[in-house]
Specification:
about 240 residues, Carbamate kinase, alpha/beta
Amino acid sequence: MPSTKSDKPAYARVLLKLSGEALAGKKGHGIDLQILQDLAKDIKQIYDTGVQIAIVVGGGNIFRGMNASEAGMDRASADYMGMLATVMNALAMQDALEKQGVFTRVQSAIEMQEIAEPYIRRRAERHLEKNRVVVFAAGTGNPFFTTDTAAALRACEIGASVLLKATKVDGVYDADPVKNPNAKLFQELSYIDVLNKGLEVMDSAAISLCMDNAMPIIVFNMNTRGAMRDVIMGKKVGTLILPNK
C-alpha cells in the first residue's frame, strides 16, 4: 500500500507500462516526438525523487501481431515482428530519457547485442540500484504473450512495489468513457473484480500473474501532466487494483 506522506515517494521501485499506441499520439501510428519528449519529462520528474524506474513499452504503434494474425499471418511470426517493434520504441524512449539527463539501459528478451543488452534479471536490478532507468524490450521473448503480461512478469521478477499502467483515460471504467459519457470510474478494484467484470485493464494472464504475486496495479491517465508524479507521491490518482479484502 502507498504511504500517506506527501514529502517523499510512496514507492521505492516501480514498473511503468506504456502502450505503443501512446507514443503515436493523434497520428495513430509511428512515434510522435513531442509525446515522447513529454513522457520523458514526466519520467524525469519521478526519477529525480530517487524512485527506481523500469519500463515496458508496447509496439502497437508500429506493428500489432494480433491484428496480423487475424488477417492470416502465422501467429508466432506476427508476434515476433511485434516484439521487434517494441525494441524500436524502447530505443526511442532511451534516447528521449538520455536527452533529459536520465541514465538509461535497454534490455531485450531477444538478443541483439549491437543495440541492447540481453535481459538478465540480476543485471537489471543492479542498474536500478545504480539509479539507471531500465527499459525492457521484446516482451517476454515468447509468442502468444502480450506486453501487458511482460510488464506483470518483469514487475514480479525485479521486486517492484507497484505496476503503473499508463493509459489515455483517467483509470478503469465500467464502460468505454470515450463512447459512453456516463461511464463510471472505479477508484479501487480487486483482481477478481477485473476478471469477473471483464474489464479491459490488462489481459487475463497479466492480471492473474499480478494476483498470484500480490502485485498492486495503478491505472492512470498519462496525458494529465503531473499525474505520474502524483501517483509516485502516494496521491489518490486513477484506479488502484489490489487483492481481495
